[in-house]
Amino acid sequence: MKKSNTPKLTIVGAGPGDLELITIKAIKVLQSANVVLYDALVNEELLQYATQAEIIFVGKRFGCHAYSQNQINELIVSMAKRFGHVVRLKGGDPFVFGRGSEEIEYAEKFDLETAIVPGISSALGVPATNGISLTQRKVSESFWVITGTTANHKLSTDVALASKSSATVVILMGMNKLDEIISIYQNNRTDDLPVAIIQNGTKDTEKKVVGTINSIATLVKEQQISSPAIIVIGEVVRSTLKLRAYFQEESVEDAFVFQNLDIAI
């Protein structure tokens, strides 16, 4: 693809992790890039498409930032002014807790051309690849997607609101707040809702545990599940054929095996 020296920013969603879960348009944009700034959750194999670009890692993990957000914003502008087309490659979808809008707004202050290529959000793609339908007739009519960690590092107050509804709830970036999430559900309702927690969703390194509000913390500890992971809470987890074995009424011994078995899906 022909490259351009016109200062430009394209925000690109890389999908949830599987190399093939990226759009054709995203691949074409990577091929046209002069510079690629990529995040920690991006599958680095995708960088093979940026054959003529300078590649810069700007990822942020919990407690460890290669660059602050302000530094990333400034880097976008300086690289675009110097080299031309900058591609900002973000895991999932850049407009679902990806701060894509903030980077677009900053770039436009400096008269950069801007474009957006959506991606498959982990909030949708990871449950789907595990057979979890976020909405299901007669089970769930809607779903919430909530951040587990807000800008002030606290759990979103929306979790308390969502816990009182019949909707499926998907929580991103919430593993370090899991005990708080469980406490909210225990305080706000009496039913022991099913919970699935999926780490490194869609990747070869994917791990998951499935339990209930009352059992999930123990299962997470036993199976050593950690970030990055998504939390799915709701009856749709129990209704999922691929995960139903976890909830079968077997003997105490069999139930323990089902809860701890890492089924390959």
Task: Report on the architecture of this protein.
The protein has 265 residues and is of the alpha/beta class. The chain is 30% helix and 21% strand. It has 9 helices and 12 strands. The protein is elongated, with a radius of gyration of 20 Å. Mean pLDDT is 90; it is low at 249-265.
Task: From the structure above, extract its key features.
elongated, alpha/beta, 265 residues, disordered C terminus, single chain, 30% helix, five-stranded parallel beta sheet, five-stranded mixed beta sheet
Sheet with most strands: strand arrangement: 3-2-6-1-7
Q: Shape, please? A: elongated
- Which sheet architecture does the biggest sheet show? 5 strands, parallel
Order of helices and strands: EHEEEEHEHEHEHEHEEHEHH
Supply Rg: 20 Å
Distance between the termini: 37 Å
Layout of helices and strands, plus pairs?
Blueprint: E1 8-13, H1 24-31, E2 35-38, E3 54-57, E4 60-61, E5 64-65, H2 69-83, E6 85-90, H3 100-109, E7 113-117, H4 122-129, E8 143-147, H5 158-163, E9 168-172, H6 178-188, E10 194-199, E11 207-212, H7 216-223, E12 229-233, H8 235-239, H9 252-260
Parallel strand pairs: 1-6, 1-7, 2-3, 2-6, 8-9
Antiparallel strand pairs: 4-5, 9-12, 10-11, 10-12
Quick rundown:
The protein is α/β, with parallel strands linked by helices.
